[in-house]
Design brief:
Blueprint lengths: L1 E4 L9 E6 L9 H9 L8 E7 L6 H4 L4 E8 L7 E6 H11 L4 H13 L6 E8 L4 H15 L11
Parallel strand pairs: 2-3, 2-4, 4-6
Antiparallel strand pairs: 1-3, 5-6
Length: about 160
């Protein structure tokens, strides 16, 4: 697991973008592609970008103590390819029964989070990329993830 932190900040103020997926399988590489893009950007000091790979429940340590967490991952079944979809954690759990089956690790983590998280549960969002990632869609997803992490947008952002 690789971390890119733009600067040191207190844990309770941290906003985390956790990019998950398998960089060696193109159809599951959206998260790692966004991670690679974001680590080259000049981000706010309180944003930490994490290459979560395929770690599932092991990502709990990055959720606890954070103010806001944005997962970035490949998604399937939400519409046409080359689309960015934004969901809150509660929507991920309810919508995921038939659509997000490749990421049982994230789904399981979100389902048990209220039972195992020490302290307050942060605001949690998913920025999903439908279809194979390309430069334009990776940049778009990365920009959305940063805006959500910064609190600039969130609940109201849903691309149709």
């Amino acid at each position: 697991m690789r971390l890119y932190r733009s600067d040191k900040y207190t844990l309770k103020d941290m906003k985390r973008i956790i990019c998950i997926g398998n960089r060696y399988i193109q159809s599951d590489s959206a998260g790692p592609c966004v991670y690679d893009y974001l680590k080259e950007q000049n981000l706010s000091q309180d944003i930490e970008v994490i290459d979560g790979g395929l770690h599932g429940i092991d990502l709990l340590r990055f959720i606890e103590g954070a103010e806001r967490v944005v997962f970035v991952d490949s998604i399937y079944g939400f519409g046409n390819s080359n689309k960015v979809v934004v969901m809150e954690a509660k929507d991920i759990v309810s919508e995921s029964v038939n659509r997000y089956d490749h990421s049982a690790g994230l789904l399981y983590l979100l389902q048990i989070l209220p039972h195992i998280c020490e302290g307050d549960i942060p605001y949690i969002y998913l920025v999903g990329i439908e279809g194979l990632p390309n430069n334009d869609i990776v940049k778009k997803a990365a920009c959305i993830a940063v805006k959500i992490a910064d609190g600039v947008c969130g609940d109201f952002y849903h691309e149709k």
